[in-house]
Design goal:
The chain is built from 15 helices and five strands. The radius of gyration is 21 Å and the shape is globular. It binds tryptophanyl-5'AMP. The site of tryptophanyl-5'AMP has 25 residues, from strand 1, helix 1 and helix 8.
């Protein structure tokens, strides 16, 4: 078996300011993994334009999301932080993967079905091939672990299928080029913690999402204490008091979601939360939830504000990250070109 170096890769789209789902589902794990792994964190702006974007807002959002990464604890000295469009090899490898992936695989992607909606004829071709670009992001660095929320699981499975098919289709030239049995690793999804799927505050059966028209459905990392308090107060609940064990949350999606959010913010289990709040009514619990949410989010918001006041500094960080990423990316692309037969020695 070919041995691959442990490496973490993940990314977020700069289509909006980040919300609590992004933070608890992915970012908390990104920050943690810096202690044990080499990490690459990307602002995936090429993915953003698969849906229409206002260019000026996009430019602002790229910096704002980069600032959010840093404010949440991504350290550009330890991890590589850049925006995808600065490293052209992402698009180059995605093209190769467009020719490896099969139409049938892509047609099964639920995110495409959801985002394209009923008017599929009018969706961009980019939206359809979105997952091959995501596979390219990860495999360009031959990353082995990808911390994400649960909604990205299907894309990660596709990434593994593409890596496997590439390794099989080109097995001969991979071996001849000295890479052994496999050129690409099969990256592991890291879907961890009590909040891998944070739900809308208005409807516990729907994912918390940037595209929900109601801002009351989500807590943004840019929300101030008043906004957070109002959103939590208005969050949908049911009439029962909280149960004393996690098993009692089944069939109660809103209660389960709020308890999960509290658990993730405090870095404890749902059972630990319910040991404290079992039997309490929602007004007591919501007041405690506002306190921990504000305690976590307020310093992030303040730091983001400080960072975005100096866009030149953020651009310098992104440029320096892109320089480091480009070196790794070029090494992979050089090998890929040889393997597929573009540049045989
Ligand atoms: P994006 O920008 O939609 O979301 C970024 C990350 O946040 C997680 N997430 C959630 N987790 C829990 N509950 C929620 N309600 C919630 N909403 C979002 C997502 O799972 C994700 O981890 N396709 C990706 C971006 C991407 C990427 C990559 C990720 C592009 N290339 C390579 C990993 C590796 C996306 O749209 O994420």
């Amino acid at each position: 078996m070919t041995q691959f170096k442990d490496l973490v890769f993940s990314g977020m789209q700069p289509t909006h300011s980040l919300h609590l789902g992004n933070y608890l589902g992915a970012m908390v794990n990104w920050v943690r993994m810096q202690d044990t792994h080499a990490c690459i964190y990307c602002v995936v702006d090429l993915h953003a334009i698969t849906m229409p974007q206002d260019p000026k807002a996009l430019a602002r959002n790229i910096r704002e999301v980069a600032a959010a990464y840093i404010a949440c604890g991504i350290d550009p000295q330890r991890s590589i932080l850049f925006n995808q469009s600065r490293v052209h090899q992402h698009a180059e490898l995605a093209w190769v993967f467009n020719c490896v992936a099969r139409m049938g695989w892509m047609s099964r992607m639920t995110q495409f079905k959801e985002k394209a909606g009923k008017d599929r004829e009018n969706a961009s071709v980019g939206l359809f091939v979105y997952p091959t670009l995501m596979a390219a992001d990860i495999l360009l660095y031959r990353a082995t672990a990808v911390p994400v929320g649960e909604d990205q699981k299907q894309h990660l499975e596709l990434t593994r299928d593409i890596a496997q098919k590439f390794n099989n289709d080109f097995a001969d030239t991979i071996a001849e080029a000295g890479f052994g049995e496999a050129f690409f690793p099969l990256p592991e999804p890291m879907i961890q913690g009590p909040a891998t799927r944070v739900m809308s505050l208005r409807d516990g059966t729907k994912k918390m999402s940037k595209s929900d028209p109601s801002d009351y459905s989500r807590i943004n990392l840019t929300d101030d204490a008043d906004a957070i308090a109002q959103k939590v107060r208005k969050a949908k609940t049911d009439p029962e008091p909280l149960p004393s064990e996690a098993a009692g949350l089944s069939g109660r999606p809103e209660a389960d979601n709020l308890v999960g959010i509290y658990a993730a913010l405090k870095d404890v289990s749902r059972d630990a939360v319910l040991a404290e709040f079992g039997g309490a009514n929602f007004s007591t619990f919501k007041a405690a939830l506002v306190d921990v949410a504000v305690e976590k989010v307020a310093p992030i918001t303040a730091e983001m504000r400080r960072l975005t006041a100096d866009p030149g500094h953020i651009d310098a960080i992104l440029a320096s990250g892109a320089e480091k990423a480009s070196v790794m990316a070029e090494e992979t692309m050089k090998a890929v070109k040889e393997i597929v037969g573009f540049a045989r020695a």
